[in-house]
Write a structure and sequence with these properties.
- The protein is an alpha/beta fold and 328 residues long.
- It is 35% helix and 23% strand.
- It is built from 12 helices and 12 strands.
- The strands form 2 sheets. The chain has an 8-stranded mixed beta sheet, with helices on both faces. Strands 2-1-4-5 form a 4-stranded antiparallel beta sheet, covered by helices on one side.
- The longest helix is centred in the middle third of the chain and has 18 residues.
- 39% of the residues are buried.
């Protein structure tokens, strides 16, 4: 593990099993996050983004999930092998997570201040007055007056609730923040405010961040690196410049083609043909070949390895050179 790397995931494979079927949620996933880096994890609903995040925290439901292989190294420690006591220490203190919906992330019968205090008390050796002062300071940091400390979640708007959730996540100065679609339930204006807040706080606390999203505009604004996820696999990985200027996987091309442009002259958006594969019955060969306009016979037969095509740019595609030339 490099001295620059805070988190390294090697060969992570996760299934969800029942008596009727097995869902292949994540397959042979490899990722690395450096200190101070923000990585965008991009993909459609059901691509395995949230399963990856929950695996990092080791909070997947014991039934029906099953981690079949791989390791998740955080500062050199494999989180999948740590005892429960050590994991409880790491969660919240070293690794924090902002979940998708702030409406369901907060306890409706506890004041927002008490909920922030509870997080701090779990990980900090402080007096009660010190914990309260720290919690009030965190509210102020996210733009909420401390006079709202004893209010309940139902007294806050959606955007304010998300700010409370961010305050809870950052209350113990985590080294890594995982934000899972943090603006999904918010309107566009509030989304922009929350994203600007997260950018400012990331710089202030010098933390690394994994931003899970399907919005490439948000990725361009916030992230340093991008991982494109499809049907449980990372199909392309690189810097923001690599992905936005030199994307090399047909699925990434499909994502960009589906973005409307106010400057474009297209009458309608190009969509990726077909449907995402059934996760209980994944295709052989390249995972994307049934929908790929550039697929060849080899793509349906063989499984593509991760190919390095730049200093920090990787793609899982046999024909990345050929299809780019065809598409030009």
């Amino acid at each position: 593990m490099s001295n620059k790397q805070l988190l390294q995931i090697n060969g992570l494979t996760v299934d969800y099993e029942s008596s009727f079927r097995t869902v292949h949620a994540v397959r042979n996933l490899n990722l690395a996050i450096e200190f101070g880096e923000t990585m965008g994890l991009v993909g459609e609903t059901g691509s395995g983004k949230t399963t990856t995040a929950l695996s990092i925290l080791n909070i997947l439901p014991e039934i029906p999930s099953r981690i079949l292989g791989g390791e998740i190294l955080f500062e050199g420690k494999d989180l999948l092998k740590q005892p429960k006591k050590e994991l409880r220490r790491i969660r919240g203190k070293d690794i924090a997570m902002i979940f998708q919906d702030p409406m369901t992330s907060l306890d409706p019968v506890m004041t927002v201040g008490a909920q922030i205090e509870e997080m701090i008390a779990l990980h900090a050796d402080m007096s009660h007055s010190g914990i309260r002062e720290r919690a009030q300071d965190m509210l102020e940091v996210v733009g909420i007056k401390k006079e709202r400390f004893d209010d309940y979640p139902h007294q806050f708007s959606g955007g304010m609730k998300q700010r409370v959730v961010i305050a809870m996540a950052l209350s113990c100065n985590p080294k890594l923040l995982i934000a899972d679609e943090p603006t999904t339930a918010l309107d566009v204006t509030i989304q922009a405010q929350v994203l600007d807040l997260m950018k400012d706080l990331k710089k202030k606390y010098q933390m690394s961040m994994i931003l899970i999203t399907h919005d490439l505009g948000v990725v361009a604004d916030i992230c340093d690196t991008v991982a494109i996820m499809y049907a449980g696999e990372i199909v392309e990985y690189g810097t923001v410049e690599d992905i936005f200027d030199r994307y090399s996987h047909p699925y990434t091309e499909g994502l960009f083609n589906s973005i409307p442009s106010i400057d474009g002259d297209r009458d309608e958006l190009k969509v990726v043909a077909g449907l995402t594969p059934d996760p209980t019955n994944l295709p052989k060969g390249c995972i994307f070949h049934p929908r790929c306009p550039y697929a060849a016979e080899k793509c349906a037969r063989d499984y593509p390895e991760n190919i390095q095509i730049g200093e920090s740019h990787y793609v899982r595609c046999f024909r990345f050179n050929e299809w780019r030339q065809q598409g030009e």
